[in-house]
Amino acid sequence: MQEVQTKYEEALKEETILTQRISLCKEFIDIILEYICHNADSIHILTAENILTAVHTIGQDLDTELLHLKLEKGILENKMRNLDKAQKTSIAI
């Protein structure tokens, strides 16, 4: 039970970090979009679009990683519930 609990706690920490990283990507996208809008006549738009797309791709990759982590957390939660039920059953006997 302790090993599963430890993995779950690590997943919670990782989830927090991933969420912060995704949020940062979104903030940078907003900043880049604002910059492009204000400087569209004096910058190389294709380069700016490539930069914007790269940051967006990083955010998507992090979001996919978060999705897999949430799946792992759900499985760990299920294991903890089952282990808890098993412990309560063995104590009752």
Would you kindly provide a written description of the structure presented here, covering whatever features stand out?
By secondary structure, this protein is mainly α. It has helices at 2-39, 45-92. Helix 1 packs antiparallel against helix 2 (45-92). It starts with a helix and ends with a helix.
Q: Helix count, per DSSP?
A: 2
Number of domains: 1
Structural class, by secondary structure, is mainly alpha
The CATH architecture is: Orthogonal Bundle
Quick one: overall form?
Answer: rod-shaped
Q: How confident is the prediction overall: mean pLDDT?
A: 95
Order of helices and strands: HH
N/C terminus separation:
19 Å
Say what the CATH topology is.
Helix Hairpins
Proportion of residues in β-strands: under 5%
Q: Name the poorly predicted regions.
A: none
Radius of gyration: 21 Å
Tell me the name of the CATH class. Answer: Mainly Alpha
Largest sheet: none
Total strands = 0
Q: Helix coverage percent of residues?
A: over 70%
